């Protein structure tokens, strides 16, 4: 299936919404240049396909934050050293832009951005309410943040978007571990679906419920991330994000009660699959494709639902070998 092109006024409206989310004021990034400069991920990668889907990116990002805040040291660092509570939208915009830069940005600019973030994290230190020292650049915390982000985005795309074969997910995790993780100071990035399971099982005893987690749910629900008339959609996608977490994690930290209601998963899947086909000029994926000398709609044709680079999958999404539902979602 190819791209869906929206009528002009509707396309302009949604392009504005995308710009608002991924290009915060004062931080605009040009994904179109330098011409032919590669990104950290290859254009034919699963990451390039997955991160162009605004529905599954939203779900995966919220999932990742929920898992990260379940770790006491990460939670204390975020709560004590950021303006997340007071300016939620701006923080989410910066995080979204960082994710887009990591996947689609010119390699040189992406590396410089990561270096800036790492320098900022050097100043983030403290002690949790339970008396445990923390520092943002602690390798164990960097590993947890990186691995939960990878899980969140890829699991959301697999579950609520067009889906991906397990082999594709393994390749994407390996690509992230080799090309991206070292830049963030990550020393133990997951490299396969089975790695995700063992990594999360290892961290599970360190995760805990906390009033801040429920406060985060209140904050993210109230944040003006979408226009007021789309607030029901925002709330639906937040519930999908909770359901996207590994079941043992959401249950352990007391968030399972915030997940999808009966019948809602089908609706979210319809939204995710539709969003994967809607062409929007403002998506960083479009600009990055053109920077690499590819057609603007590259990810909606050749790369949209297949892995043609190695010839392992057919082009039609329904022909994509789909793993059992419980194979990647933990």
Task: Give an overview in words.
This protein is mainly α. The chain has one domain. Helices cover 54% and strands 3% of the residues. The protein has helices at residues 8-22, 46-50, 54-69, 72-81, 88-104, 107-121, 139-160, 166-179, 193-203, 211-222, 231-244, 247-252, 264-275, 284-291; strands at 4-5, 125-127, 133-135, 278-279. It has a two-stranded parallel ribbon. A hairpin with a 5-residue loop joins strand 2 and strand 3. The longest helix has 22 residues, at 139-160. It starts with a strand and ends in a 39-residue tail after the last helix.
Write down how many β-strands occur, each being a DSSP E stretch of 2 or more residues.
Answer: 4
* CA radius of gyration: 19 Å
Oligomer: single chain
Number of helices: 14
Strand content: under 5%
What labels would you give this structure?
330 residues; two-stranded parallel ribbon; 4 strands; mainly alpha; two-stranded antiparallel ribbon; 14 helices; single chain
């Amino acid at each position: 299936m190819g791209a869906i092109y929206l009528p002009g006024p509707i396309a302009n409206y949604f392009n504005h919404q995308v710009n608002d989310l991924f290009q915060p004021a004062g931080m605009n990034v040009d994904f179109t240049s330098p011409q032919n400069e590669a990104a950290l991920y290859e254009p034919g990668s699963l990451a390039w396909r997955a991160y162009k889907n605004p529905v599954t990116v939203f779900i995966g990002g919220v999932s990742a934050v929920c898992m990260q805040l379940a770790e006491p040291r990460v939670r204390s660092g975020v709560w004590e050293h950021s303006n997340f509570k007071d300016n939620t939208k701006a923080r989410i915009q910066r995080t979204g832009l960082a994710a887009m830069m990591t996947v689609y940005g010119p390699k040189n600019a992406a590396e410089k951005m990561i270096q800036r973030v790492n320098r900022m994290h050097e100043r983030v230190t403290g002690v949790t309410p339970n008396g445990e020292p923390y520092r943002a650049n602690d390798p164990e915390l960097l590993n947890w943040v990186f691995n939960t982000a990878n899980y969140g985005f890829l699991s959301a795309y697999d579950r609520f978007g067009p889906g991906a074969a397990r082999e594709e997910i393994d390749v994407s995790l390996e690509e992230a571990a080799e090309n991206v993780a070292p830049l963030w100071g990550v020393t133990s990035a997951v490299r396969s679906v089975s790695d995700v399971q063992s990594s999360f099982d290892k961290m599970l005893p360190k995760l805990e419920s906390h009033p801040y987690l429920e406060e985060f749910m209140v904050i993210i629900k109230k944040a003006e991330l979408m226009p007021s008339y789309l607030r029901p959609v925002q709330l639906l996608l937040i519930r999908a994000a909770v359901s996207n977490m590994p079941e043992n994690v959401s249950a352990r930290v007391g968030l399972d009660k915030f997940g999808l209601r009966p019948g809602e998963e089908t609706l979210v899947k319809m939204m995710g699959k539709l969003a994967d086909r809607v062409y929007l000029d403002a998506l960083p994926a479009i600009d990055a494709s053109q920077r690499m000398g590819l057609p603007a709609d590259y990810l909606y044709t050749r790369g949209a639902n297949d892995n043609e680079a190695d010839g392992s999958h057919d082009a039609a999404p329904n022909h994509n070998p789909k793993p059992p539902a419980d194979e990647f979602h933990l």
